[in-house]
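Recap from last week: sequence in, structure out.
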Amino acid sequence: MTAFWVILLAGIGTYAARAVFIVGVGDRELPPVVERGLLYVGPAVLAALTASLLTSPDGVMAYIENIPEVVGSIVGVLAALRFRRFDVSFVAAVAVFFALTALL
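Predicted structure tokens:
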């Protein structure tokens, strides 16, 4: 099987797994407890992605090699604590990350 077919089948499978929930639950109203829980999905996913960026493959924190990521993460956390808004903290973290990446 070629890489094309593997990617195509993986894409179809991923699409189908998501479409089942959209089609099956799309016309129903979710319970308030589920809607409240869904508010935390985006920040949790971004936190998981950030944590994976800050670790090396063997699980040891790799701060020295990832200075832009570490400083951007710190700025994002500080902005989130200060402003209590996701969009502000995200923009601040991304701006610092790209600025440091361009400088280093």
